[in-house]
Design brief:
By secondary structure, the chain is mainly beta. 13% of the residues lie in helices and 42% in strands. The chain has three helices and twelve strands. It has a seven-stranded antiparallel β-sheet with strand order 3-2-6-9-10-5-4. The model has no long low-confidence stretch (mean pLDDT 91).
Length: 171
């Protein structure tokens, strides 16, 4: 029996097909920060836990991203998981040309000069251990050195082109 959601022929993989498929994939929203001549940061939905021992994470960044020159040279980064009530913070760090560290963004310098966002669901200070080319992007692997969780609220999610919250399933 063919399930209606899987009916139809397979299509060749194109940028549009990949975009369409991944619009169906919900991902947690993170902000990656680093310090060069000034603090930089960007919203990422490509954050992954790679290993618990040693504690490794990975994220992707386009080489055309305005933050890439700093990330390319940085030794340390901050990884921040956004809470459900932090949509505007996620949008600020996703917006091109925005003053991401303006007065409306609560942050402070952390270990090794890493800009740390205040009030987030969880954060890590990480040391970059690898940058791997992937077409016009780089996959960055970083080892978590310190971190904390706030225990407040649930995660902010990105799905189908917008920010969302988790909704409990009916039992």
């Amino acid at each position: 029996m063919t399930h209606p959601a899987t009916a139809g022929p397979e299509e060749p993989a194109t940028a549009e097909l990949l975009r369409s498929v991944f619009r169906q994939h919900a991902a947690g929203v993170a902000v990656i920060t680093a310090f060069g001549d000034k603090p930089v940061g960007f919203t990422a939905t490509s954050l992954n836990s790679v290993s618990l021992d040693p504690p490794l994470v990975s994220f992707g960044i386009g080489t055309s991203n305005s933050c890439w020159p700093v990330i390319a040279q940085a030794e340390y980064v901050g990884v921040h998981l956004l809470a459900v009530d932090q949509r505007e913070l996620g949008a600020t760090f996703a917006r091109s040309g925005a003053d991401r560290f303006a007065a409306s963004t609560a942050w402070h310098p952390g270990p090794n000069g890493v800009p740390l966002l205040d009030g987030v669901l969880g954060r890590l200070v990480c040391r970059i251990v690898a940058r791997m080319p992937a077409a016009g992007h780089r996959i960055v692997v970083a080892e978590a050195l310190t971190g904390r969780t706030s225990g407040r609220g649930g995660p902010l999610l990105y799905h189908d082109g917008g920010f969302h919250r988790l909704a409990p399933l009916l039992r």
